[in-house]
Amino acid sequence: MNIYQILQNRGFIKQVVFEDDLKKLLETKKIPFYVGFDPTADSLHIGHYIPIMAMMHMQRAGHTPIILLGGGTGLIGDPSGKTDLRNFLDDSTTQNYVNSFKSQITRFFSFTGKNAAIVVDNADWLKNLNYIDFLREIGTHFSVNKMLSADCYKQRMEKGLTFLEFNYMLMQGYDFLELYRRHKCLLQIGGNDQWSNILAGADLIRRKERTDAYALTLPLLLKSDGSKMGKSSKGALWLDKNKTSPYDFFQYFRNVEDEKVEECLRLLTFLELDEIAKMTAHRDQRMNAAKEVLAYEVTKLIHGEHEASLAKEQAKAAFSDGENMPSVKLEITVDTPVTDILILSKIALSKSDARRLIEGGGVKINDDKITDYAHTLSNYTTKNEFILHKGKKVHLKIVF
């Protein structure tokens, strides 16, 4: 099957320019393509995983993935989807983030053979640009009127778009042109919020090089209410196991809403579509088996088979109080307030969050429901270990 059909059947394609031409190109040639990752934190998160999966499908079909790390654009800040100016990162922090991204993302791809993956950092060409030369060569091809109509700038216009951010589209467009010149890259793939920026790059190549270039965007991972998936009670769902444990990662997908199980299986695993359709055919308790497969498969791809199997065992143990229940050691005493314990164990993000959880009646120590956020641990146990429960889905053994 043609790679375009594979991506389409699995739900990867949101928008595409010159669709028929791109289909024909992917049928007849093996091409270099790229996805950009701006280093906005010290770890990738689950939102990055959809483009990573699309890239893996493309490489399996014989195309060459170019992984672009935004050591240059990260210093500007992408305004797409933002209502406020991004926090500025200094050179040192940006480079540390680039290195973290590189160590995480490279394990998903093959770096041998005819279509070996390529890793580049756009700081290599953006940081040494002569601004006047850049404006003369690149700026003349961008219409301000057209840029202001782009979705990536509309939200920022309400609070005040800075000239710094206004340059971002030019920088990303220049990346595409540079990758065409260096590697004959003909396709950029990105999240759907990048549509305007990707189109700008493809158009720049046509104007400067008199050749076709293509843009393809992927769906964002969303909940049924339209909000972004991947935000847990402990914050973002990171790919770094030191920031989000494999157990928490597993549990997130084990508890995903029924309406999203089939979509997640298609986008986030390599399971065959027929198998996915059978697993998700019934909207009843049988969906729990599909959720367990989803959680295991995604955790395996991100963290490896050993961690996925361990997380699966821990998840089962958590509901039977078994010895394999996930545990954590804390520097606390029986006089420690329960709200502090919730924060230290990362069950709650803050004291106000801890209070809300307690007031909602969803927190227990062993079999005792916590009813007063002013209580200390001595109100519930004198032993040096206990089980902390949050609702029906989070169970953690605390040792102190």
Could you list some keywords that capture this structure?
six-stranded mixed β-sheet, Tyrosyl-Transfer RNA Synthetase, 13% strand, alpha/beta, 400 residues, 18 helices
Overview of the structural elements:
The chain has 400 residues and is of the alpha/beta class. It has 3 domains: 3-218, 3-Layer(aba) Sandwich (Rossmann fold), CATH 3.40.50.620; 231-318, Tyrosyl-Transfer RNA Synthetase, CATH 1.10.240; 327-399, RNA-binding S4 domain (Structural Genomics Hypothetical 15.5 Kd Protein In mrcA-pckA Intergenic Region, Chain A, Roll), CATH 3.10.290.10. The protein has 18 helices and 13 strands. The strands form 3 sheets. The chain has a 6-stranded mixed β-sheet, sandwiched between helices. Strands 9-13-12-10-11 form a 5-stranded mixed β-sheet, with no helix packed on it. Strands 7-8 form a two-stranded antiparallel sheet. A hairpin with a 2-residue loop joins strand 7 and strand 8 (235-236). Helix 10 (168-183) packs across helix 11 (195-209), helix 12 crosses helix 16 (305-318) and helix 13 (261-268) packs parallel to helix 15 (287-303). The longest helix is centred in the C-terminal third of the chain and has 17 residues, at 287-303. The mean pLDDT is 89.
